[in-house]
Description:
There is one protein chain. The chain is of the alpha+beta class. The chain folds into 2 domains: 16-72, no CATH class; 81-187, Alpha-D-Glucose-1,6-Bisphosphate, Chain A, domain 4. It is 44% helix and 23% strand.
Amino acid sequence: MALSSKSSTKGPRMGDDAVKAKTGKVWKEWFSILDRAGAKKMTHQQIVAYLREEHGIGGWWQQMLTVGYEQARGLRAAHQKADGFSAYASKTVGAQVARLYAAWSDPLQRARWLPDAPLEVSRSTDGKSLRMRWTQGGSRVDVGFYAKGADKSMVAIEHGRLASPTAVAAQKAFWSGALARLKVLLEGR
């Protein structure tokens, strides 16, 4: 895959205020520091190590700053991770989290709104999460469940290990339609 060689100082979606509050600097300052350190020629792991060892940045922020830098410098495409690309989707529904979780974890219920999806559950934590394997192509689907009130909950999906940005777009469209069907089923509309 060809990535842009253009260099930018624009940061990722997370704003400067949040980055500065947690790291002491805004995106532009971090990009300048990393440019001076030669990060354009470093691996992802080398940039992470540099942020940890030279600047004392914690684990989650090491990754956030590294990915933001790689994207801004054209070293990493949007939605790209070390093991491929990831598509994200979420939906809030008018149902308790236990009912939402059951709609995913019970194969008969799941077939009502997600027919013929090539999914195989590999791990589950009751009412909290599912890890599934997409059996056609070997991608992975991680699903999280969150209570948003007495009769409201949210499901968040990361469909990872996708081959390309085109696959990301296809899976985003797939999950958008599937979650719309799930919402109708659970809310009875």
